[in-house]
Amino acid sequence: MRRYMEIIGIAGLFVVTCAITPAGVNGQPAERQQSDLLLRIAGQANVSPGDTLGTVWVIGNHADIRGEVHELVVINGTARIEGSVTGNVVLVKSHADLTPSARIGNDLLLYGSTAATSPGATIKGTIHQEMGPSFGARALWFLWLSITVALIGAALVFVYLAGPPLEGISDTIRGDLTGTLMTTLAVVVGLPGLAILSFMTGVGFVLGVFIIVVLIPLLAFAGYVVAGMATGKALLGRLQTRRRSLYVSAAVGIVALQIIAIIPGIGGLVLLVSSQLGAGALLYRTWLRGRTVRTISAPTMQPA
């Protein structure tokens, strides 16, 4: 799930790269550059001597700071600082080399990161290093319980509003696994791709934001509920003979998935697979019903 969310986040930031990265900033020492923000995703950012920028973000590559910037943020990359950063330097899963001429006007914040500081480098603030989450076990269990209760509540609402259709969608996972898997693959690849294409066209900015911020999370949430229903029905067997048993199936299935989700190593994979598989079943079932309705409503040719 974490990897999937990173992909979605990078796709969302793609439009920012196209929209707000000033032309000619990257590695042109011939003229002085000024800008509020420079963002590079999978591309190197060069701030030459004499250049002055506001904030520099680098994701998945290298930042070479020989001029002056206000803030520097590097995620999953590296940085070499020979110039000055008047504000903070933030490193997330990254490494930075501070040369003797490096100047940091505020704090150096390291999150799962390292920094090599040469003699002569100046850091006016403090160095804060955090290698991992610092939440206590009690807080984590409380968070897990809160999320589980919220998911159960949402599942019960789903069953109340659309009990039989929801049951049919959950049966699709086992009844037509091939179609469900193909639809799931189309969702996982197609929706982020459609969002990126929307961003690239410019006029589709709002559509791209809607896909990433609303549609993908909503489908993942609904898919998790569908997967929970399918899991609950599989665990309870033939007990769901009345509508009220659908509530039990949904609640039991959500709890079962949540318990599996906390298992180290496979928990995130379970969250990802179950939510996306459920979303695929939801869309596949919707497509099948739509095709059936179109077939029934199509006019029948009568012989003359």
Describe the protein's topology.
Layout: H1 2-20, E1 34-41, E2 45-47, E3 52-59, E4 62-65, E5 68-75, E6 78-81, E7 84-85, E8 89-92, E9 95-98, E10 103-104, E11 108-111, E12 114-117, E13 122-123, E14 127-130, H2 137-161, H3 163-175, H4 177-201, H5 205-236, H6 243-261, H7 267-297
Parallel strand pairs: 1-3, 2-4, 3-5, 4-6, 5-7, 5-8, 6-9, 7-10, 8-11, 9-12, 10-13, 11-14
Keywords:
5-stranded parallel β-sheet; 2 domains; alpha/beta; 9-stranded parallel β-sheet; 7 helices; 304 residues
Describe the structure.
This protein is of the alpha/beta class. The chain folds into 2 domains: 129 residues, no CATH class; 159 residues, no CATH class. It contains 7 helices and 14 strands. α2 packs across α5. The longest helix has 32 residues. The radius of gyration is 26 Å and the shape is elongated. The N terminus is likely disordered.
